[in-house]
Write a structure and sequence with these properties.
This protein has 90 residues and is mostly helical. The chain has one domain. The chain is built from 3 helices and no strands. The protein is globular.
Length: 90
């Protein structure tokens, strides 16, 4: 934190990690899952978890998903995963 990452950015990713951890525990009974298991259904399930279980507003949910998308895109660009579930192929 400081020169490259401001506190608000750190906080956004910190709380994303907390929410994902809660979601993994509730849905999968695990503390974490491999990146390769993130797919479209996972994203939808996480969105519904935030809406129904956590009671978040749509703007909050959108911010969480934007941050998840950034992580997934980074993983795809680094070839840690081989497809991006946020990209819709028609």
């Amino acid at each position: 934190m400081g020169k490259r990452i401001v506190k608000s950015t750190y906080n956004r990713y910190y709380y994303l990690r907390v929410r994902l951890s809660e979601f993994f525990t509730e849905k999968y009974h695990l503390s974490d899952i491999p990146l390769r298991e993130i797919n479209y259904q996972f994203i939808r399930d996480f969105e519904m978890y935030l809406l129904i279980v956590r009671g978040n507003k749509q703007s909050t949910i959108a911010q969480y998903l934007i941050n998840v998308k950034k992580i997934v895109e980074l993983a795809y660009k680094n070839e840690w995963i081989f497809w991006n579930p946020f990209v819709i192929i028609r």
